[in-house]
Specification:
Layout (H helix, E strand, L loop, with lengths): L1 H43 L5 E6 L2 E6 L4 E6 L3 H4 L1 E4 L5 E8 L5 E10 L2 E9 L9 H21 L1
Antiparallel strand pairs: 1-2, 2-3, 3-4, 5-6, 6-7
């Protein structure tokens, strides 16, 4: 009797875990494909993009050899691929919006320079295709703010 209960328990565990594992596996494959696509787009511009990360619906990376920041929307990678020279950036700051001082509405990075004003949007509350919590997204974007600001000092 105990063996049958144990086997049924394992069977039900596997039945419930299979969809979750499938989603994780599929997501991992999609992220690898997107990262390769960004690296390919960078190679066409003679860039070696490293430290590539997918945050929300945005993919961001840094070419440390030529000091360029690259980013794109994961849904339209080729169409929205952008290169920003780090030397053109004077300030980089996290930009957030909150709903009634409670949950995050938007999370982005604001890049400002003498001839540059760009906002990279990583998270929007209304976008249901983003499978990331706003606070987690904010944490990841703050790491990129720190990375970009460190690279500003090197240029």
């Amino acid at each position: 009797m105990d063996t049958i209960s144990f086997e049924l328990g394992i069977l039900f565990l596997l039945l419930f875990m299979m969809p979750v594992l499938y989603i994780i596996f599929k997501s991992t494959i999609a992220q690898k494909r997107i990262k390769k696509e960004i690296q390919s787009l960078g190679k066409k511009q003679n860039l070696t993009i490293k430290n590539i990360e997918v945050i929300g619906n945005t993919i961001i990376g840094m070419d440390e050899n030529h000091h360029n920041l690259v980013f794109s929307n994961i849904k339209k990678t080729k169409e929205t691929f952008q290169i920003v020279p780090v030397g053109a950036i004077k300030t980089c700051a996290v930009k957030t919006g909150r709903i009634r001082n409670k949950s995050l509405d938007t999370v982005g990075l604001e890049l400002m320079g003498p001839e540059l004003k760009k906002e990279i949007l990583f998270y929007q509350e209304e976008d249901e295709s983003i499978a990331m919590d706003g606070e987690v997204c904010l944490h990841e974007v703050r790491k990129w703010e720190k990375t970009i600001n460190q690279n500003l000092q090197l240029v």
